[in-house]
Amino acid sequence: MYLVGLDFYTYTTREILKASNEQRGKMLKGQAALSCGLYLLLFPIAAVLLQQVQWPVGLALWFIPILVLEHFNQEVSRLLVALSEQLTASIILFVRQGSWALVIVALMAYDKESRNLHYVMASWAVAGVLAASLGLFKLGRLQLGGWRSAVDWRWVKKGIAISMAFLLATLALRGFQTIDRYWLESLAGIEVVASYVLFLGVAGSLMTLLDAGFISYAYPNFIKLYHQQKYGELNQSVRKLVLQTLFISAAFAIVSWLLLPYLLTWIAKPVYVKHISLYPWLLLAMVVNAFSMAPHFALYAQGKDKPIIYSHVAALIAFVASVMALQTSWPLLAVPIALNVSFAVVLAIKAFAYFTAPTANLPTAQSQIS
Predict the structure, then answer these.
(1) Residue 69 CB partners (closer than 8 Å, separation 6+)
(2) What UniProt keywords are attached to this protein's entry (predicted)?
(3) 3-state DSSP call for residue 333?
(4) What does each of the 370 residues of the chain score in pLDDT, given as a tens digit?
(5) What DSSP string describes 97-157?
(6) pTM of whole model > 0.85?
(7) Angle at 168 between CA 167 and CA 173, to 5 degrees
C-alpha cells in the first residue's frame, strides 16, 4: 500500500484541515485521481510478480480487491480522524480488521469445510466492503464540497513531492523495525526471536492505547491551532499530550510488568520465561517512541517536515551502527538496545527542532491578557 498510497495522506491531512468545507472534496478527488493512476501503473507489475512467485490464481484474484478495499478504508479512517470523527473511524477499523476474524473463527468451529484460505479471504473482502460502505455513508453526511471541480494537478504534484519525502522517512522507520527480527535470529536464534516478537507486541500495545485515546484527538487540533496562529494554545496542547503520555506510560509499565508473568504462565512456553529480560528493554523503547509523538505532530502541524524525515533516516543509521557495535559483546541484547538508541535519536532530533522553533515558547492569549 506504500506504493499505491505514496503516504499522500501526510499532505492531504494537513491541507484539508486548513481548507474550508467547500474545498475539501476537490482535494480528496485529487488524491483519488493520483491513487487510480498508480493502480493502473502498478497492477500489471504486481500481476507479473505474483505469477513469478507462483501464487495460486484463486488467491491472486482475492488479492487485488482486498488491496483496494484496505487502501480505501485506511485513507477514509485517516480522513475521519483528521476531521475529528474518531468514533466512526474506530468502528470502521473494527469492521475491517476485527469483525471478520471473529466471524471466520466461529464459522470454522461450526463447519469444517470452511477451514480453508478462500473462506478467510472472502470474509476479509466482505468486511472490507462493509467498512467501505460505512465510510462512504459518513463522507456523504459530512457534505464536503468541491467534488465537481476539476482535479488540481499542480496541487497533486506539490503533494507528491512532500509525500515522497515522508514515504522515505516511513520506509526508514519500518526498515529497522523489520530487519531487527532477522538480525536477532542470526545473533541469538529463532527461539529468542519468538520471545522478542511476543514482548514487542505486548509493549507495542502502549502505542495503540495512546494513539486511540489521545494522539488521534490531539494532532488535528495541533494543525488547527497552528493554522489559526494560536501558538501559545498549541504549545499548551503539546505539553498536555506529553503529560498524558507520561501518565499512561507509567501506568502501562506497572500494569504490564505485573501481569506479564500470568500471561507467560497461561502461554506455558518456558522459552518466553527464560528471555523475560528482553521485555524491560522493549518497553523502554516503546516509551521513548511514545514521547517522540508530541514533538512529531507539533512539527507536522507547523509544516516543519525536514526534522521528521532526518530523524527517521538517522534512526535507521543509528540502529545499524548500534547493532554492529554491540553484537559481539551482547548478542542477546544488541537489537533491543539498538532499538532504544534509534527511538532516542528520533526523540532528540524532533524535540530539539520543536523547542528551538520560534513559536515554541509563545504564551497563550489568556496569559498575554493577564
Answers:
(1) 96, 125, 128, 129, 131, 132
(2) Cell membrane, Membrane, Transmembrane, Transmembrane helix
(3) coil
(4) 777 888 999 999 999 999 999 999 999 999 999 999 999 998 888 888 888 888 787 787 888 899 999 999 999 999 999 999 999 999 999 999 888 888 998 989 888 888 888 889 999 999 999 999 999 999 999 999 999 999 999 999 999 999 999 999 999 999 999 999 999 999 999 999 999 999 999 999 999 999 989 999 999 999 999 999 999 999 999 999 999 999 999 999 999 999 999 989 898 889 999 999 999 999 999 999 999 999 999 999 999 999 999 999 999 999 999 999 999 999 999 999 999 999 999 999 999 999 998 877 666 655 454 4
(5) IIIHHHHHHHHHHH-GGG-SHHHHHHHHHHHHHHHHHHHHHHHHHHT---TTSPP-HHHHH
(6) yes
(7) 95
Residue type (1 letter), 327: Q
C-alpha 239/C-alpha 236 separation (Å) is 5
Residues 82, 87, 91, CA angle at the centre, nearest 5°? 110
| Residues contacting 126, CB < 8 A, separation 6+ | 100
Q: Which three cell numbers stand for residue 16?
A: 484539508
How many helices (H) and strands (E) would you count in the chain? 17, 0
Residues in the chain: 370
Burial class (CB in 10 A: 0-12, 13-18, 19+), 348: middle
Question: Nearest 5°: phi and psi at 151?
Answer: -65, 130
Give the CA count within 13 Å in the CB-facing half-sphere of 352. 11
Give the Cα separation of 22 and 74 in Å (integer): 23
Which residues lie closer than 8 Å to 34 by C-beta, 6 or more apart?
6, 8, 156, 159, 160
Q: Which three cell numbers stand for residue 335?
A: 537489537
